[in-house]
Amino acid sequence: MREPASAAAEPLLAVAGLQAWYGESHILHGVDFDVRQGEVVTLLGRNGAGKTTTLKAIMGIVAKRKGSAKIAGGETIGLSSDRIARLGVAICPEERGVFASLNVRENLMLPPKIAREGGLTLERIFTLFPNLAERLNSGGGKLSGGEQQMLAIARILRTGARFLMLDEPTEGLAPVIIQQIGRTIAELKREGFTILLVEQNFRFASTVADRYFVMEHGRVIDAFADSQLSANMEKLHEYLGV
Amino acid sequence: MFLGHAITAQQLYGQLLVGLINGSFYALLSLGLAVIFGMLNIVNFAHGALYMVGAFVAYFLLHGLGLNYWWALIGSPLIVGALGALIERTLLYRLRGLDPLYGLLLTFGLALVIQRLFQNYFGASGLPYDIPPGLSGPPRNLGFMYLPNYRAWVIVFSAAVCFSTWFLIEKTKLGAYLRAATENPTLVRAFGVNVPRMITLTYGFGVALAALAGVLAAPINQVRPGMGADIIAVVFAVVVIGGMGSILGSIVTGFVLGMVEGLTKVFYPEASNTVIFVIMAIVLLIKPAGLFGRVA
After folding, report:
1. CB < 8 Å to A106, chain B
2. What span, in angstroms and rounded, lies between the C-alpha atoms of B8 and A227?
3. Distance from A232 to chain B by nearest Cα, in Å?
4. CB distance from B191 to chain A under 8 Å?
5. E strand residue ranges, B69-219
6. N or C: at which end does chain A have fewer Cβ atoms within 10 angstroms?
7. Helices B227-242 and B195-221 meet at what angle, rounded to 10?
């Protein structure tokens, strides 16, 4: 992936007028936002707002999409998902997608290296997620929710992808594991990874995010930086119905 | 009622041998079907026809190019596998994501076209294919029975191929890709893997196994256009009994049902043609997913 010369450099991800369909359902009606290199950006919104669909549309795994989604300046609408992945993008889906017919080691080693450097070593991954090292030979279907989440994150860290999309990584997890995931994201950010996060739990998101985009009915309706978070708290409560 | 006459040991072992031979073919063919169904969600009705083509390719290699049986063992699966990849890439890929019924209809049509084409040119009677010189000669005397060399070879080689395929799928990294893409092809593709190419190669591999069975069958059953249609009904029954989801299940079920068929021929010959279908009916009533199948 290209190194940015300065903060004014082109964003790593630039989404404009993005529309997406699942079959006949028109889910995204024109999404606009951007993510700069090295940032952590969070998409907030209620259930059904279109946050997951946005990640899937960027990854190229929705039925149909229109509009623009540029990665490192290159248009990706029209590319197949494997070609988008090879640009250095990886997704950790909401359902985690741990393969039950593979054991933990096979799951971890499955995504191919898409860049020669930039990926974490196995040693580093086991330092971040020590539980995985103990469960290498367990079947993928036998893991707890927390272990599955860690595996789903760990396996995309090996590949060399520097733009990660994480869909609700803390959903349904115990506070101790949520903290571990928060620490991991903070470490990845320090190492220069760019992360697009979907989170319902905005308290968790606020520990790592630089910017927020609020979605509703398949559109982005508001945006603010982390420094403006407390000022916008009341608006946020309204948006999220919390 | 069953034992109206004394069964000699010779008869028993003789039929068990035939049962193991048939079981070898059932195992190889249902293995290919299971692999294809897992990845493509298509019931490959063309499997029997491609088994037949495999035998014919062996015949052409011998009489057209002077390449003997050992060349055919490698050459025929490669050629028919390539043909399979072509079929997938041009025809089957259009059906991806659709109701499995379309795949069934398309491959059924293919089977009819292929079989009638060969029948047109070669007639219904068989073409001879000799047992290769290395494996012919007098059968070995094991004491309790005579074991023809070629038949022993078929059983051992089939078992080795089945086991190697199982090992490849369950224990290697390549197999991990296959299993993952069978479970969630969208996610595997989102990791940067060319899943469409994997699907094409998997179909090619499945039919290559069928062609290999055809080459093995040629010296025993001779090379006839109808040989695929004769065997495919039983193979489907085997697959239903074993359950489409399990690689090991199809192999074990194939061998075991072959032996069951052989034993039935000894003790109750009238039922030998139908015993496998009777078992299929019973399994469908008790465990519809198949003996080794996973309930989806």
Report:
1. 173, 176, 180
2. 92
3. 36
4. yes
5. 140-141, 146-147
6. C
7. 120
- E-state strands within B101-259: 140-141, 146-147
- Best to test chain B binding among A53, A82, A157 (most B CBs inside 10 Å): A82
Residues of B in contact with A102 (CB under 8 A): 176, 179-180
- B100 Cβ neighbours under 8 A, 6+ residues apart: B41, B42, B43
A236/chain B closest Cα distance in angstroms: 32
Predicted pLDDT at A6: 47
DSSP 8-state secondary structure symbol assigned to residue B8: P
Task: Catalogue all structural domains in chain B, each as residue range(s) with its CATH number.
Answer: 9-122+139-286 (1.10.3470)
Return the pLDDT at A5.
Answer: 45
**Spatial CA neighbour of A55 closest among A2, A29, A18:** A18
Task: Round to whole Å and give the CA distance between A98 and A106.
Answer: 10
What pLDDT digit, counting tens, does each position of B60-89 carry? 999 999 888 999 999 999 999 999 999 999
Helix, strand, coil abundance in chain A, percent, nearest 5: 35, 25, 40
- Would you call A197 helix, strand, or coil by DSSP? strand
Chain B: closest CA distance from residue A234 (Å): 38
pLDDT at B295: 56
Q: How far apart are CA B228 and CA B225, in angstroms?
A: 7
Cα–Cα distance between B27 and B165 in angstroms, integer? 11
Q: Going along A49-184, which residue ranges are E strands?
A: 64-71, 74-75, 89-92, 163-167
pLDDT tens digits, one per residue of B185-209: 999 999 999 999 999 999 999 999 9
What residues have CB less than 8 Å from A135, skipping those under 6 apart? A104, A143, A147
Please calculate the CA angle A136-A196-A25 and round it to the nearest 5 degrees.
100
* CA dist., res. B3 & res. A188, Å (int): 76
- The CA distance from A190 to B67, in Å, is 64
Distance from CA of B175 to the nearest CA of A (A): 10
Q: Report residues of chain A scoring pLDDT below 70.
A: 1-8, 242
Low-confidence ranges of chain B (pLDDT < 50): 1-2, 296
The Cα–Cα gap between B157 and B69 comes to 14
Q: What is the pLDDT of residue B294?
A: 65
Rounded to an integer, what distance in angstroms lies between the CA atom of residue B278 and that of residue B281? 5
Number of Cβ pairs < 8 A linking chain A and chain B: 60
Give A95-99's long-range contacts (Cβ < 8 A, gap of 24+): A96/A148, A96/A149, A96/A151, A96/A152, A97/A152, A97/B184, A97/B187, A98/A140, A98/A141, A98/A143, A98/A148, A98/A151, A98/A152, A99/A140, A99/B179, A99/B180, A99/B183, A99/B184
Nearest CB to A101; choose among B183, B186, B187? B183
At A237 the pLDDT is 86
Closest CA to B234 of B33, B58, B83, B13: B33
